[in-house]
Amino acid sequence: MFPQRRLFTFPFLGRGRMDVRMNQGHLLLAVTLIFCNSQLLVVANSWWSLAMNPIQRPEMYIIGAQPLCSQLTGLSQGQRKLCQLYQDHMVYIGEGAKTGIKECQYQFRQRRWNCSTVDNTSVFGRVMQIGSRETAFTYAISAAGVVNAVSRACREGELSTCGCSRAARPKDLPRDWLWGGCGDNVNYGYRFAREFVDAREREKNYPRGSVEHARTLMNVQNNEAGRMAVYNLANVACKCHGVSGSCSLKTCWLQLADFRRVGEFLKEKYDSAAAMRISRRGKLELVNNRFNPPTSEDLVYIDPSPDYCLRNETTGSLGTQDRLCNKTSEGMDGCELMCCGRGYDQFKTYKHERCHCKFHWCCYVKCKRCTSLVDQFVCK
Ligand SMILES: *[C@@H]1O[C@H](CO)[C@@H](O)[C@H](O)[C@H]1NC(C)=O
Ligand SMILES: *[C@@H]1O[C@H](CO)[C@@H](O)[C@H](O)[C@H]1NC(C)=O
Ligand SMILES: *[C@@H]1O[C@H](CO)[C@@H](O)[C@H](O)[C@H]1NC(C)=O
Ligand SMILES: *[C@@H]1O[C@H](CO)[C@@H](O)[C@H](O)[C@H]1NC(C)=O
Fold this sequence. Notes:
- Its main location: secreted.
- One of its GO terms (cellular component) is extracellular space.
- The protein is 33% helix and 16% strand.
- The protein is an alpha/beta fold.
- Helix 3 (77-85) runs antiparallel to helix 6 (186-202), helix 4 packs across helix 8 (259-271) and helix 5 (133-155) runs antiparallel to helix 8 (259-271).
- Mean pLDDT is 81; it is low at 1-44 and 56-66.
- It binds 2-acetamido-2-deoxy-beta-D-glucopyranose (NAG) (4 copies).
């Protein structure tokens, strides 16, 4: 459970209406989409676009000045308010989203759905309008990215409202070790990310039990799972002091886990994600109640995944045509599964790599550059 160590309170944001403040281009697009399919409204535009629009350095803006926040696309009303109050945080939210997207692409590089981004505004394209497992992962990893980036920015002294971690000394830390080096402020990062990322969901006011309500609950649950992953994987790190490496004195602090670990952890959560549906009382419940109900650390989804094999404008699937595959692998990266039985084309390409590496005393490694002709396979 998340320990309630309250350091800061964020301004209360009332329940607003769904954000309809889009620029004209998006509005046109959104209107077109509404006519095609009412469900497509869900994430036509999102704070994820912060990962795409480079945000200028915050020093350029006087705190409280409006231009930055009104220029950023993809923010909901509540997020825009937070932007005005915490302008210096916006760069890190953008960075966090970018880290999340990169990690998503790494974790799914060998899958039919490869987490590819489509354009600047909808970022992941229309596949996010389906409440699938993949969507669940995307929400979790981007929320995780924000916790990560904001926690670190606090430690580095980049933000005006937070500093080093003030987490309590762990009970099991040996008594003669010092606690309190400047740690990543994951407590603050968690809280800020909760306010910011969930703002867009909290503003929605869908009828209880509706499909849109189910999707909102799904998003909130997956955002939380992502934040909890970063929070729980943060650990104690220590450094030795004392006479010439005697390590008689140790200083310890709270440190974020490497983001790759967060990605791997959430990928496992993706594999074990729970299929849910909305109950008559307006809560998410398991489709198959022989399984254990998900905890706040688990991912949930409400829709089956679309077919990622073929390109489909309606679902937003890019298809796997022209994707690289591995001829000998029997896994998802193998040509059989990746190409969905359509077969593959083979071509030769030059591969450059480091080779004949030698260790030189002391201490470096010298390599040669080798070029070889290798076979590559791409899906038809
Ligand atoms: C995306 O944003 C970048 C940088 O802001 C811009 O150069 C590029 O043209 C944009 N692409 C699209 C498809 O809008
Ligand atoms: C695209 O996906 C939709 C929804 O699954 C399906 O009804 C439609 O037939 C698909 N279109 C094509 C061209 O495959
Ligand atoms: C993901 O797959 C799409 C569709 O095949 C491809 O265009 C894109 O380059 C891939 N993206 C990454 C990051 O591998
Ligand atoms: C292809 O898959 C095989 C079996 O899983 C593996 O040993 C090999 O390294 C893979 N090749 C590439 C280029 O990834």
